[in-house]
Design goal:
Layout (H helix, E strand, L loop, with lengths): L2 H29 L4 E7 L4 E6 L6 E3 L9 H4 L3 H4 L10 E2 L8 E5 L5 E5 L2 E2 L27 E4 L5 E2 L3
Amino acid sequence: MNRKQLVAPMAVALAVLAISSVATASHRRVSAGAATVTVAFNKHLKTNILVDATGKTLYMFTADTAGKATCAAADPSCPKLWPAFATVGRPRAGEGAIASLLGTTRGAGGVQQVTYNHHPLYHFHGVVASGGDLKPGDIKGQAFYGVWYVLSPKGVPIKRQ
Protein backbone atom coordinates (compact mmCIF):
# COMPACT_ATOMS: atom_id res chain seq x y z
CA MET A 1 0.00 0.00 0.00
CA ASN A 2 1.46 3.37 -0.96
CA ARG A 3 1.36 6.63 1.03
CA LYS A 4 -1.69 8.04 -0.81
CA GLN A 5 -3.70 4.87 -0.15
CA LEU A 6 -2.96 5.17 3.59
CA VAL A 7 -3.96 8.84 3.96
CA ALA A 8 -7.76 8.47 3.50
CA PRO A 9 -8.23 5.58 5.97
CA MET A 10 -5.99 7.34 8.51
CA ALA A 11 -7.99 10.57 8.15
CA VAL A 12 -11.23 8.68 8.78
CA ALA A 13 -9.75 6.93 11.81
CA LEU A 14 -8.50 10.23 13.24
CA ALA A 15 -11.91 11.87 12.70
CA VAL A 16 -13.65 9.00 14.53
CA LEU A 17 -11.11 9.27 17.35
CA ALA A 18 -11.64 13.05 17.61
CA ILE A 19 -15.43 12.65 17.77
CA SER A 20 -15.04 9.94 20.39
CA SER A 21 -12.74 12.17 22.44
CA VAL A 22 -15.22 15.06 22.31
CA ALA A 23 -18.04 12.76 23.47
CA THR A 24 -15.88 11.46 26.32
CA ALA A 25 -14.79 14.96 27.35
CA SER A 26 -18.37 16.19 27.32
CA HIS A 27 -19.42 13.20 29.45
CA ARG A 28 -16.71 14.03 31.99
CA ARG A 29 -17.92 17.64 32.16
CA VAL A 30 -21.47 16.53 32.92
CA SER A 31 -20.25 14.05 35.54
CA ALA A 32 -17.93 16.49 37.35
CA GLY A 33 -19.12 17.18 40.89
CA ALA A 34 -21.77 15.42 42.91
CA ALA A 35 -23.88 13.34 40.53
CA THR A 36 -27.66 13.43 40.74
CA VAL A 37 -29.90 10.46 40.04
CA THR A 38 -33.47 11.32 39.19
CA VAL A 39 -36.51 9.65 37.65
CA ALA A 40 -38.17 10.31 34.31
CA PHE A 41 -41.03 8.74 32.40
CA ASN A 42 -39.78 6.84 29.35
CA LYS A 43 -42.28 6.92 26.46
CA HIS A 44 -40.93 3.80 24.79
CA LEU A 45 -41.04 1.62 27.92
CA LYS A 46 -44.15 3.43 29.24
CA THR A 47 -42.73 3.55 32.77
CA ASN A 48 -40.46 5.59 35.02
CA ILE A 49 -36.72 4.90 34.83
CA LEU A 50 -33.53 6.25 36.41
CA VAL A 51 -31.76 9.06 34.59
CA ASP A 52 -29.01 11.56 35.36
CA ALA A 53 -29.57 15.29 35.96
CA THR A 54 -29.56 15.95 32.19
CA GLY A 55 -32.19 13.26 31.54
CA LYS A 56 -29.80 10.71 30.05
CA THR A 57 -30.66 7.08 30.80
CA LEU A 58 -28.73 5.12 33.41
CA TYR A 59 -28.12 1.38 33.07
CA MET A 60 -27.04 -1.57 35.19
CA PHE A 61 -24.89 -4.54 34.09
CA THR A 62 -26.12 -7.97 35.23
CA ALA A 63 -22.54 -9.23 35.70
CA ASP A 64 -22.01 -6.67 38.49
CA THR A 65 -22.61 -8.38 41.83
CA ALA A 66 -22.37 -7.25 45.44
CA GLY A 67 -22.20 -3.62 44.33
CA LYS A 68 -18.90 -4.09 42.45
CA ALA A 69 -18.38 -2.69 38.93
CA THR A 70 -17.07 -5.42 36.59
CA CYS A 71 -17.47 -3.81 33.16
CA ALA A 72 -13.71 -3.30 32.60
CA ALA A 73 -12.89 -6.79 33.85
CA ALA A 74 -15.47 -8.30 31.47
CA ASP A 75 -13.97 -6.54 28.45
CA PRO A 76 -11.26 -3.82 28.34
CA SER A 77 -13.27 -1.88 25.72
CA CYS A 78 -16.39 -1.89 27.91
CA PRO A 79 -15.72 1.43 29.72
CA LYS A 80 -15.59 3.24 26.35
CA LEU A 81 -18.98 1.87 25.33
CA TRP A 82 -20.47 1.92 28.84
CA PRO A 83 -18.78 4.70 30.84
CA ALA A 84 -19.32 4.70 34.57
CA PHE A 85 -21.73 7.28 35.95
CA ALA A 86 -19.12 8.99 38.07
CA THR A 87 -19.39 11.39 40.99
CA VAL A 88 -17.18 13.57 43.10
CA GLY A 89 -18.57 13.34 46.60
CA ARG A 90 -21.79 11.75 47.73
CA PRO A 91 -24.37 11.30 44.93
CA ARG A 92 -27.69 13.10 45.33
CA ALA A 93 -31.25 11.86 44.91
CA GLY A 94 -33.26 14.03 42.56
CA GLU A 95 -37.00 13.96 42.06
CA GLY A 96 -38.40 10.43 42.40
CA ALA A 97 -35.09 8.78 43.36
CA ILE A 98 -34.69 7.16 46.79
CA ALA A 99 -31.70 8.63 48.65
CA SER A 100 -31.19 5.51 50.80
CA LEU A 101 -30.60 3.43 47.64
CA LEU A 102 -27.67 5.61 46.50
CA GLY A 103 -24.05 4.66 47.10
CA THR A 104 -20.69 4.45 45.35
CA THR A 105 -18.15 1.86 44.31
CA ARG A 106 -14.80 1.97 42.55
CA GLY A 107 -15.34 1.96 38.80
CA ALA A 108 -13.05 1.55 35.79
CA GLY A 109 -9.96 3.74 35.99
CA GLY A 110 -10.52 4.27 39.71
CA VAL A 111 -13.49 6.64 39.34
CA GLN A 112 -16.04 6.90 42.11
CA GLN A 113 -19.03 5.26 40.40
CA VAL A 114 -22.60 5.84 41.54
CA THR A 115 -24.63 2.81 42.62
CA TYR A 116 -28.38 2.51 43.07
CA ASN A 117 -29.76 -0.39 45.08
CA HIS A 118 -26.21 -1.85 44.88
CA HIS A 119 -26.18 -1.69 41.04
CA PRO A 120 -23.25 0.33 39.62
CA LEU A 121 -24.69 2.80 37.09
CA TYR A 122 -23.51 3.40 33.53
CA HIS A 123 -24.32 5.51 30.47
CA PHE A 124 -24.43 3.98 26.98
CA HIS A 125 -22.10 5.58 24.43
CA GLY A 126 -22.75 2.76 22.00
CA VAL A 127 -21.13 0.98 19.15
CA VAL A 128 -20.80 2.05 15.53
CA ALA A 129 -23.72 -0.12 14.37
CA SER A 130 -26.28 1.12 16.89
CA GLY A 131 -24.92 4.41 18.18
CA GLY A 132 -25.42 5.34 21.79
CA ASP A 133 -27.89 7.32 23.81
CA LEU A 134 -27.54 10.83 22.39
CA LYS A 135 -30.46 12.62 24.02
CA PRO A 136 -32.80 12.33 26.98
CA GLY A 137 -35.29 9.50 26.46
CA ASP A 138 -32.93 7.36 24.36
CA ILE A 139 -32.71 3.76 25.58
CA LYS A 140 -30.57 2.18 22.85
CA GLY A 141 -28.72 0.15 25.49
CA GLN A 142 -31.87 -1.44 26.91
CA ALA A 143 -31.57 -5.27 26.94
CA PHE A 144 -28.25 -4.95 25.05
CA TYR A 145 -26.97 -8.53 24.69
CA GLY A 146 -29.45 -9.46 27.41
CA VAL A 147 -27.16 -8.10 30.15
CA TRP A 148 -27.71 -4.30 30.24
CA TYR A 149 -30.95 -2.86 31.61
CA VAL A 150 -32.54 0.37 32.81
CA LEU A 151 -33.67 0.51 36.43
CA SER A 152 -36.98 1.33 38.03
CA PRO A 153 -37.12 3.97 40.81
CA LYS A 154 -37.10 1.03 43.28
CA GLY A 155 -33.74 -0.08 41.84
CA VAL A 156 -35.07 -3.15 40.05
CA PRO A 157 -33.96 -3.94 36.46
CA ILE A 158 -36.69 -3.45 33.85
CA LYS A 159 -36.15 -6.34 31.45
CA ARG A 160 -38.74 -5.64 28.77
CA GLN A 161 -37.94 -3.85 25.52
